[in-house]
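Table S5 (text form). Sequence records supplied for joint modeling of the two-component complex.
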Amino acid sequence: MSLPEILARLAALAVVAPAVAFAALGAFTLLLRAPSERVVSRVVLAALTLSALSSLVVWGCAVIAPDAFLAVDVGHWFKTREYEFDLVLLIDRLSSTMMLLVSLIALVVGRFSIAYLHREAGFTRFFLLLSLFATGMLALVSAGTVDVFFAGWELVGVTSVLLVAFFHERAAPARAAARVYVTYRLCDIGLLVGVVLMHELAHSSHFEAVLGGEAWPGTGAALGQGGATALALCFLVAAMGKSAQFPVGSWLPRAMEGPTPSSALFYGAISVHAGVYLLLRLAPLLQSAPAASAVVAVVGALTAVYATLVGRAQSDVKSALAHATMSQVGIMFIEIGLGFYQLALVHLFAHACLRCLQLLRAPSALRDAQDIRSAHEGAPLPQLGLAARLLPARLVRRVYWLALERFHLEALQERFVAAPVMRLGQRLDRVERRLVATLAGVGDRSGEGGGGGVARGALPAGEGGEGVARPSSGGAMALSSRSVLSDSRDAGEVRS
Amino acid sequence: MSALVLLSALILVPWVTALLVRRAPSDERGSEIAIAGAAVTLLLAVAPLALMHGGSFDGVGPTLPLVGARLHLGLDGYSVVMPLLVAGMQLCLLIAGRRAVLDRPNLAAVLSTASATIAILCARDLALFGVAWVATLIPGERLIARKEVNDPLLRRTYRLFLLGGTLPIVAGIAGIAWLAAQRGAVAPFDIDEIHRVGLPAASQPVLFALLGLAVLIRRAAVPFHGWLPVLLERGPFGVALLLGQAQVGIHLLLTVVVPLLPEGSAAGMPIIAGVGLLSTVHGAVLALVQTDLRRMIGYLMSSQKGVMLLGIASMNIQSVSGALLQGVASTISLTGLAIVIWAIEARTGAADTRKLGGLVASMPRAAAFFFLLACASIGFPGALTFVSEDLLIHGVLHVHPVLAVIMLVATAINGITVFRAFQRTFLGPAPRARYAAVESMLLRERVVLLSLVALTVVLGVAPTRLLVLREGVVDRVVEQIHP
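The corresponding structure-token record, covering 979 residues in total, follows.
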């Protein structure tokens, strides 16, 4: 067996091992009962250890051969006469580094969570989602085609949303999860359009074919400037969503509703960097699209400024860390926009490790603060804020107020994105109900959902609520359009 | 065993079972008979897959004198899977259905509807096709017309859209048979015979309009979609699902319209594509604002059916393959989703998300199944819909990138819809702890739902055999429009 084949199998093993753990534990839980904490944690950690070891070997090989750009075809998922969905893994410095980072941090967070979530009602759920996340993220970073990348991207998104809603008995995490999901879903349109464009422009979904096949970061894509710019901008939309960039990043502080280990894993270490990884992977494309690179840098700069200002007005540690993460990721976007790809990768690796540690220690933040104060032995802490001393007080007050309100970004999104769609839907629904009722000759009342005496299921009144005469629940959603995206911000509900 | 005998048995077993169920001494006994009959139907539906050679499984019986109708049954690479799907749906509904809800008339209606649907899928003679088309609607009509069901909107909507919607197909079939007889066809209703003699190009647009109208009504395409949300919200659940999910409209399009009316199809497909796209977006937006889970499923189905119409009308190998696969994929996932909703409603007496919430505490497995099947219905990686949507997008892209982008937006909205439904039904605090003592899912419900999840995942991970099985039909259909 040749070295590329061995590497391909190891990379595939790294992706598949957590998936097998997820499938086995998930089927057992759904059909019979939840296994014990010991069984769940051992199975998942064994799979993650296998992933980490495989990733380590792959990374070692990439370090030995730094110029390697190895696209390994492990078969095809499906094919028709004119189309094949190839399963291609890409092994180079970038992907192997990310594989190592992902698998190691997933393992560390998994180990940490055994004690942290002990006797928590959602222990099994957390570990199932951890293994599914590891599968998705490893597939994402090792993808050799944009189609495989998309599959991993979606897995990461859905596990992220489910972990935000981990404490489902409270309303705030559920609403926060909905917000995260809506943002992901809308921004993913950029990724999908990018996939479609890539097929249209390059007639291939293989990164190797589109990006030139040179060792990362390459020298340019095999596309014209116009095509490269359009493609890069589409992928930028997706990256902005996943990496919480301005103006769609308001979901990140909300996502801190999840348990601390998931916050550390997703929004400190790994998931939030998926957009950065996407842009790093597309470095050759960005080199061929200077306009798109400039947009990347501008988005990053705006995010860094916004997140810094808002972060300084936060009163809870997880929100402050979320905004700090946004601002650092914004700086990574700037680095990518300016063409410092290696620097951005180093920044990503270091930031992921540091932020993961900070978030895992977030529950001890108060104690840390007390330790720092006691270390100063009652002496006042140094004033770090420079702006307050240099800028006019009125301006500082205005910016502070805006920062507290998070620059009204959410309200604007709700007013100009969510509300029009919901209003359209509600109007259509009303028109349609009236129309159907009129056509059926029963007047408006039944069509509007006031059809009292409607037997649900056309059944005799009986058990279980079915067949019980009840008014139709119909009616367009009586909730305001705010309900698609909105969430009453309540810092007190943020679990830290 | 000859194809004719096997396919006749496949059609008759559920019908005979329905008769036995009606005569059963109790609902419980009726349920046992129905499940046994549905299981036998499923086994019979597997047989053509094993016995099919050369892409077809065909048998010809006697001809009806004077009329010229012939007992001609057959399956091809596309339709061979469909009876299996209908039989599977039927078995799932009967096993997972609430016993108290599925009384004998309901059980018999489910079985009779499935029998007529399978007859449509097997018919190679237009007379039988038309009779079976009308017959699929009779059990539902009788059920809705029962004295204890006092719902004029449901009854009249059903009659207006579904029973009224049979007129175009009856007229179309009569017209085709008359023209075929004029051209010297020995059996003027036989699809193969009509194909042999051909139909005059001048009359094809009219015939296409009639049959296309029948397709659009059964596919619940805008503006003929009004029946689907009403039926799913207020109608008998099993029959409503069978009528909503059985892909008889697509079958009519592929088996009758495209082969017999190639010129008419070439001219009319852009209209079908436009209607499909409109239905996709319309269904997605309307589903987003629903609070009733059953009505929401109705609009989701309408949106998915629109995607399929768009795929078929795009008429290239990828889009047609994707559309046919989407038919299977959405049937599996939306049936499962509907079963979960059914289970929730049976326990809480509500399917309105404004009255629900926090159910994950009392029904954790229902929440897991809902989420998995919701993901499976919106093209999540690993599910069969991921494969079908991938093919559809690439196929539609060849026609026009803007169509593909609009389709993607609609798909994204559908994703938001199902997640919001999940959030409002299962997450958050339970309203006044109303559902704290709700019964957990039964083992038979879990087995059915896990089977559906496993099926969509297995087919999603390894869809190649299913695609290869349909390759011949896809090639033929595309060739007939673009020779």
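Note: Residues 270-483 of chain B form one domain.
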